């Protein structure tokens, strides 16, 4: 799908505020509600918009500790380890990175006791992991979901 300027403007408005109505978007861009709806539906069908969601402030939700992990795996175990980590409720995101079978993972937990339990009982318990490096988030300067247009 080739995006035109109107599609990009719709995406920018929805990125800034995903709760905007088709009417509000239409007023901003000089389009009818029906036209905006059709464009948004096309963007969804084509996979340009993957989903609509809410971003929850993890600290206000009781997850006070945010940690990032680099996890090296045996090549034959990478997918299995990644799936196990992705299924873990403490894991906010998990990505395969370039390098020797490396996973990058973001973990959110209530406190440092919970982080220690996660590392010892859930992370180190997985077979196929060869190295783990962790980084604790001290302060967030910018956080964003998705692509900034």
Q: Could you explain the architecture of this structure?
A:
With 149 residues, the chain is α+β, with helices and mostly antiparallel strands. The chain has helices spanning 5-16, 22-29, 33-45, 78-86, 112-123; strands at 65-73, 91-97, 102-109, 129-136. It has a four-stranded antiparallel beta sheet. Helix 2 packs across helix 3 (33-45).
Helix and strand topology:
Elements lengths: L4 H12 L5 H8 L3 H13 L19 E9 L4 H9 L4 E7 L4 E8 L2 H12 L5 E8 L13
Antiparallel strand pairs: 1-3, 1-4, 2-3
Helix pairs in contact: 2-3
Which descriptors apply to this entry?
21% strand, elongated, alpha+beta, 149 residues
Distance between the termini: 17 Å
Please state the CA-atom Rg, rounded to the nearest Å.
20 Å
Helix content: 25-40%
Counting DSSP E segments of at least 2 residues, the number of strands comes to 4
Shape assignment: elongated
User: What share of the residues does DSSP label as strand, in percent?
Assistant: 15-25%
Which strand order does the major sheet show? Answer: 2-3-1-4
Annotation field: number of helices: 5
Largest sheet: 4 strands, antiparallel
- Structural class by secondary-structure content: alpha+beta
Low-confidence stretches: none
Q: Mean pLDDT across all residues, rounded?
A: 91
The topology string of helices and strands comes to HHHEHEEHE
């Amino acid at each position: 799908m080739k995006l035109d300027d109107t599609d990009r403007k719709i995406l920018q408005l929805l990125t800034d505020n995903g709760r905007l109505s088709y009417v509000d978007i239409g007023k901003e861009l000089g389009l009818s509600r029906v036209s905006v709806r059709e464009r948004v539906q096309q963007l969804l069908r084509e996979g340009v918009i993957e989903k609509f969601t809410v971003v929850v402030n993890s600290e206000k939700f009781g997850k006070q500790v945010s940690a990032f992990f680099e996890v090296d795996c045996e090549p034959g175990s990478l997918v299995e380890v990644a799936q196990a980590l992705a299924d873990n409720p403490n894991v906010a995101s998990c990505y395969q990175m370039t390098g020797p079978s490396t996973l990058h993972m973001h973990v959110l937990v209530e406190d440092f006791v919970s982080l220690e339990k996660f590392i010892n009982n859930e992370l180190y318990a997985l077979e196929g992991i060869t190295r783990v490096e962790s980084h604790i988030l001290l302060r967030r300067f910018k956080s964003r979901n998705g692509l900034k247009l």
